[in-house]
Design goal:
The protein is built from twelve helices and ten strands. Helix 9 crosses helix 10 and helix 10 packs across helix 11. Helix content is about 35%, strand content about 15%. The chain has about 325 residues and is α/β, with parallel strands linked by helices. It has a single domain, classed as Aldolase class I (TIM Barrel). The two termini are about 35 Å apart. Strands 1-2-3-4-5-6-7-8-10-9 form a ten-stranded mixed sheet.
């Protein structure tokens, strides 16, 4: 991968990042740990049926062309990492990336065997060693990886469902996808260009028109699609009419209306955010109700702990929101 300052590498390791090959990484999710400890599960379990304890949180490309203020991940570029040197990387092949991710995930969950003191925990620990789901969304922009279609295809051959989260700046990468993920996300960071520039702090020109082009492409994708919103008080939790226009442009199956959390990298002084930037769940619900009226989307579910509301495009999306894992895999 592009040269990573030792201080940054050590900081990421201390935060639980496990590096895979030249440019990939995995990190245990709080809800994966919760699943193994018998605690509350992720909103993705409640909304889509994803087994949190069998989920790998990962990325095939460390590095991002945005610097979103609300991002709770460490932004490597703020610590001397040069994302724009990614095009000079000798990219790892999909099979070796997946092998490495599974190996590191098993290494991570191995420590939870000691707390598997009930039948449910023992079963979940055994199942955690056989991942059934991968979230390609850990840090950076996964779509920088030039063989994303092959990576998705290989995951599916192994019976692993895929959630791919994109920041929307690479419409050309979307056009190249000939194998689509189980669920494709675009992060909806702002309702208008001015707010977008303040919120995402792009490192590339024409980020806003590229973002809108990506939303237009989402409209015709033949897979499950989601717009994921992270709302920050005093920053992008404004202009619901603008958000509604963008939702209508993309016409996703689902919209996740989520509250910002003042944790991790978002607490760094240069981001300019505070704990008062966090909307509570009632405020998220009120914003979601406005979007529901403006778009015609259907209020479907909520997860209070994560401060998130799920809106669905139509009754068919509501009825089919739980992933059918039996359909994931070669020839299915």
């Amino acid at each position: 991968m592009p040269e990573m300052p030792n201080e940054l590498r050590e900081k990421m390791k201390k935060q639980g990042y496990h590096f895979v090959g030249r440019h990939s990484a995995v990190k245990i999710c709080e809800y994966t740990a919760n699943g193994l400890e018998g605690k509350e599960l992720c909103y993705k379990f409640k909304f889509y049926g994803i087994r949190s304890w069998q989920c790998i949180q990962s990325t095939p490309a460390i590095g991002c062309d945005l610097g979103c203020k609300f991002c709770w991940r460490i932004i490597p570029e703020e610590h001397g990492y040069k994302w724009n040197e990614l095009n000079a990387v000798e990219w790892d092949d999909p099979g070796s990336i997946i092998d490495g991710m599974i190996k590191e995930q098993r290494r991570i969950v191995s420590g939870y065997k000691a707390v598997a003191d009930t039948e449910i925990k023992k079963r979940r620990w055994n199942e955690a060693n056989k991942p059934m789901h991968v979230a390609l969304s850990l840090t950076g922009e996964p779509m920088f990886y030039p063989r994303m279609s092959d990576l998705i295809k290989e995951f599916h051959k192994r019976g692993v469902s895929t959630f791919l989260v994109h920041n929307g700046t690479l419409p050309e990468a979307i056009k190249k996808l000939d194998e689509l993920p189980t669920q494709f996300y675009i992060s909806l960071q702002a309702p208008d260009e001015e707010t977008y520039m303040k919120t995402t702090r792009p490192k590339i020109p024409n980020a806003w028109p590229r973002f809108k082009e990506s939303l237009a492409l989402m409209r015709n994708m033949r897979t499950r699609t989601v717009l994921r919103m992270t709302l920050v008080k005093g920053l992008n939790m404004t202009n619901p009419e603008g958000y509604a226009e963008l939702i209508k442009l993309a016409m996703p199956n689902y919209v996740e209306v989520k509250g910002f959390s003042f944790v991790g990298g978002s607490r760094e002084e240069q981001r300019g955010l505070t704990i008062s930037s966090m909307p509570n769940h009632e405020e998220i619900k009120e914003f979601a109700k406005v979007l529901e009226k403006l778009t015609g989307y259907i209020w479907t579910d909520e997860h209070k702990t994560s401060r998130i509301v799920l809106l669905s495009r139509d009754s068919e999306s509501v009825a089919s929101r739980k992933i059918d894992f039996e359909k994931i895999g070669a020839g299915k």
